[in-house]
């Protein structure tokens, strides 16, 4: 695994400090730079230790450590299923089962995706801080991007904010949306009197969901959805507002004894980085098929 990030200074970069180049050209956060100042060999220029206020010349190579800490604090490593759809030195893209929480919280310190990933990396003998880039609710299945280092987390979060890390979902909703494809552009905020539940509200945050009907059957519809924003429960709130709540959505629709979770699956993650493009897809989950006669 690559342990350093390198950048060759260009003529246009001359006059800029190493610290500014690290932030603007190498996507390194100010907090990581502060950490590297106290790390032996953390900041090198042409192989020699330097401070961040030095002004490199064209052709010189800045080399930074990735700032990998020992391991996540408070996450108990456990043996458990980890379905890796993609892996490189920066990230993991995992296929999370529906019904599994991503992080341990409160009375549930074990049995989460973070516990199992930490257990896997402990067995490998590799340190890791578990940092999920895109959020998935416990009931949602599918692809989740996890950064391996502090540098990778900053790089991937920036890609998410700038729209270079995009996601797509399959969902099964009640009824048939009319029109069968469209865009929901409605703000989402906290539902009045609730700490977790969200609702379409005039003073909420902007939220944009694009949907396309893939198939209908048994009074339900299989949808393919993409998001311009990432609000909490965004797909569930928007579809419920349209009168087509997701199958199994106890909060925005109805509980169903024949489907114990929300019928939502993260089916694609696409990431554009300066040095690579990552595109991972998964099919429609088998458990969705009986609800649309497939």
Description:
- The structure is a single chain.
- 16% of the residues lie in helices and 30% in strands.
- It is built from five helices and 16 strands.
- Strands 5, 6, 7, 8, 9, 10, 13, 14, 15 and 16 form a ten-stranded mixed sheet that branches. A four-stranded antiparallel sheet has the order 1-4-2-3. The protein has a two-stranded antiparallel ribbon with strand order 11-12.
- Strand 7 and strand 8 form a beta hairpin.
- The longest helix is centred in the middle third of the chain and has 12 residues.
Number of helices: 5
* Residues in helix, %: 10-25%
Q: Determine Rg (CA atoms, Å).
A: 22 Å
* Share of residues in strands: 25-35%
Shape type: elongated
Task: Report how far apart the termini are.
Answer: 42 Å
Largest sheet: number of strands, sense, barrel closure? 10 strands, mixed
Mean pLDDT: 90
DSSP strand count: 16
What string, H for helix and E for strand, traces the elements in order? EHHEEEEEHEEHEEEEEEHEE
The low-pLDDT segments are none
Q: SS-based structural class? A: alpha+beta
